[in-house]
Design goal:
By secondary structure, the protein is an alpha/beta fold. It contains ten helices and twelve strands. A six-stranded mixed beta sheet has the order 1-2-3-7-10-9, with helices on both faces. The longest helix has 21 residues. It is globular and about 60 Å long.
Length: 295
């Protein structure tokens, strides 16, 4: 309660440059933690305009304004969906990651990206839903048995974000070494043990892999250079990518398509740019094909 009194809530859109500028000028923050991206994969598959507008363009606007107003640390939260993405959500997060990396190189602000797995909050989300179904002895929806994910508690995720910010080099990307990935069924087993619910009283249902999901999320791509941070669960990763100038050009192309509001063209262009970045150097043609090399 005492801590809450010291916090002032400010409502605004991080993509609104005028609003962000006013807030930065008034409060002059030393540290910014950016966690305003959309993350619902199924929803964003049909809302590519909004995905690009918020996850890519607004993130870029916010970061550039933060750098321009003397913010000391800018910590952006990303997701494992950005690794070799197969969805609009993942592609938008990958492009945001790469822009922030390029922007942070040589900047005065320590700009860092933290890539997290699935966040498990006992009070909400998947844990609360599973536990409610288990206690009522209803059919428990454990998703596809083939889907493997890295899970972090809310506290673990928060600690990793703060630690990465404290360790941050300019333009750094950190991932979390959370151990082996697990199916949702493993959470069901753990909850049953903790809450003494007999598994033989539960009916567990497995479904298909949803659109936009991968069978197994991974924390880093195969060709990312890895440097474990001694004494922590963090790993710094890096790889070759497009230049800041090239990424700015890509963002302007997307911005023009967003203004037109043509979802299919936005999605195709986003996927092409993300494919270029995921491949480590091929450039995406304006028709969405991937060709050539980026210096």
């Amino acid at each position: 309660r005492v801590l809450f009194r010291s916090i002032e809530l400010v409502l605004g859109d991080v993509g609104n440059a005028d609003r962000v500028t006013a807030v930065l000028r008034e409060y002059r923050p030393e540290i910014v933690i950016h966690a305003a991206a959309y993350g619902n994969l199924a929803l964003l598959e049909n809302h590519a305009v909004e995905a690009v507008e918020n996850n890519v363009l607004a993130t870029a606007t916010f970061a550039e304004l933060a750098l321009g107003h003397g913010v000391g640390w800018f910590v952006a939260i990303s997701t494992e969906k950005a690794v070799d993405p197969v969805s609009v959500a993942g592609a938008s997060r990958l492009l945001a990651e790469r822009f922030l990396r390029a922007l942070g190189e040589g900047a005065e602000t320590r700009l860092v990206v933290v890539r997290l797995g699935e966040i498990v909050d006992p009070a909400s989300g998947i844990v609360a839903t599973l536990l409610r179904e288990m206690r009522a002895r209803r059919t428990v929806d454990a998703g596809s048995a083939e889907m493997l994910r890295h899970y972090l508690s809310l506290r673990e995720a928060a600690d990793c974000v703060l630690l990465a910010g404290a360790l941050a080099d300019r333009g750094a990307t950190f991932v979390v070494d959370a151990g082996p990935s697990m199916p949702v069924a493993a959470i069901v087993d753990a909850l049953a043990t903790i809450h003494r619910i007999p598994l033989d009283e539960l009916k567990i249902r497995h479904g298909r892999i949803p659109d936009g999901e991968k069978p197994c999320d991974v924390a880093m791509s195969a060709d990312e250079r890895r440097q474990p941070v001694e004494g922590t669960v963090l790993v710094r990763v890096d790889r070759r990518g497009a230049s800041l100038a090239s990424l700015r050009e890509s963002l302007e192309e997307l911005r023009a398509l967003v203004r037109e509001g043509r979802r299919e063209r936005v999605a195709a262009r986003l996927r092409a740019i993300a494919a270029r970045e995921a491949s480590g150097g091929a450039s995406a043609g304006r028709d969405g094909d991937v060709t050539g090399d980026v210096a």
